[in-house]
Amino acid sequence: MPITQNRGVLSAVVAYLLWGFLPIYWKLLRQAGALEILSHRIFWSLFFLAVFLLLNGHLSSFHSEIRALVRDRRRVGGVLVSTLLITLNWLIYIWAVNDSRIVETSLGYYINPLVNVLLGVALLKERLSTKQYLAVALAAAGVLNLTLNFGEFPWVALFLAVSFGLYGLCKKLLGLSPITGITLETLLISPVSLIYLFSLEVQNAGTFGWINPLPTALFIGAGIVTAVPMVLFANAANQLPLSLLGFIQYLSPTIALLTGVFLYHEPFTHMHALSFGLIWLALALFSRR
User: How many C-alpha atoms does 221 have within 13 Å on its Cβ side?
Assistant: First the structure.
């Protein structure tokens, strides 16, 4: 394997490892509400991404991409949609983790590649092989099994899968570099985050401050744990084939699943095992296309 590809694999593995262990980080902040955690995540992500762009001399390319973007109203609208999607995705993910639904979030990110396939068929007129149709049917059976046996539609898993799938579709159509895209999205939503955080401070309801040094440090660190995997992922995406990157991505939900079951003792019954087994089989078929 070439040295460049080795570095790409290392970047991808570290990125997905960080994303996989992210539930533990949000659990440490569970005394704060999901909106407060999200708002700090957005603001400090923007801060560290801006520092990264500045230190790596990428500001000029960032400005160039933005200038090209604002000339096209459709692309501007696409950025607004992608910003809304990633914001809602992050919010539901943080809320779900702290509501003891880590297993369900992992289910969502196992389903996500199959959602991407369906979006490709429905919106981009892509064609599926027989194996891929079977894979989608098996994943649907897994979701249906959970719904029928637990009497609750796994809306968290499906929301995360669909919102991230639509987000990926927006990114594909916009054609922005990963770092420019996430920096612009955090820039657009940061004013709303700051207004919310300011309102919490006015009401003396915020967790941030020197009185709470650990949560404060974790809030600031939220920007790092968001920005670092994004930078690593961007590096990997530029160096690896999509098929290899797609295989490595299953590290993240696997770690989250194991974390939810073994660290936080979330329920994982025989019915969960059956549903996950159907989805894993679907992914195995999908990867053999």
Answer: 12
